[in-house]
Design a protein that fits this description.
Length: 239
């Protein structure tokens, strides 16, 4: 399978990236800032770390762990499993010292993990939107409930389509339903064109609705710093 995103990040890690990783929607093109997005080290006093530490505990499942920034931090505190769909990123994480980096699909959790396996879950990077529909989001939440313990927490993020800044994102597509939107884009690297990615964007209120009947309830919403409020992290707790 073509994986320009994972390959470019792996090449960056190995000092072999000669061409930019591009993010495209039609004629719109952005250069994806690999170093800034994926290679900053998480530190205890950094914005957001205290919040995550207050809501996460081991065993932790890091969904869509990328180059392993958060798994590298949390594995020193408690058991952490880093799940990635990209072979290149699993290799990158192992080379960077992630202890338990696994290839797998965050939307097929029951295939990889047993009941009650984790006490907390983190998904950072808006990959949750790749559920693509609210029905698949509910199925994901049901599967997540299955692989987590009774008192588990999950910290999940997305862009909030109620904010103007979200509507300015590359690939944004409007949905007239309050609190919902889409994002469509693909990545290119060294002429290798990735699959078109469809993200479902939903507000915290729509996520609260999606939780009904899945075993989760929305406990808290943590928004980004000033001018970044359109990006939120929602904390789900078991009912
Ligand atoms: C924006 S990156 C975030 C990476 C990392 N969490 C971070 O904050 O640096 C999103 C990641 O989700 C991964 N991903 C996308 N779909 C996935 C799936 N179905 N299962 C597991 N990982 C997935 C991508 O390969 C990518 O590395």
């Amino acid at each position: 399978m073509s994986d320009p995103f994972g390959r470019a990040i792996r090449d960056f890690h190995r000092g072999e990236q000669d061409e930019p990783l591009l993010q495209l929607d039609g004629d719109e093109v952005n250069e994806h800032p690999i170093e800034e997005f994926y290679f900053g080290e998480r530190t205890p006093d950094q914005d957001g770390t205290e919040f995550l530490e207050s809501r996460l505990e081991g065993p932790l499942l890091d969904l869509g762990a990328g180059a392993g920034r958060d798994s590298l931090y949390f594995q020193d505190r408690f058991e952490t499993v880093a799940l990635e769909v990209s072979d290149h990123l699993v290799a990158t994480m192992r080379e960077r010292g992630v202890d338990d980096a696994r290839l797998g699909d965050m939307f097929a959790l029951r295939e990889g993990f047993g009941r009650d396996r984790f006490s907390s879950v983190l998904a950072y990077g808006t990959q949750l939107g790749l559920a693509r529909s609210m029905r698949r989001l509910r199925e994901f939440l049901g599967d997540l409930a299955h692989v987590t313990a009774d008192d588990a927490t999950a910290v999940l993020d997305n862009y909030d389509p109620e904010y103007d800044e979200t509507r300015e994102l590359l690939g944004y597509r409007h949905d007239p339903t309050p609190g919902l939107g889409f994002r469509v884009m693909h990545f290119e690297y060294e002429g290798d064109v990735g699959d078109t990615l469809l993200f479902r964007l939903f507000s915290p209120d729509r996520l609260r609705d999606a939780c009904v009947g899945t075993g989760w309830r929305l406990d808290e919403v943590n928004r980004g710093a000033v001018s970044n409020e359109y990006h939120y992290q929602a904390v789900l707790e078991k009912e």
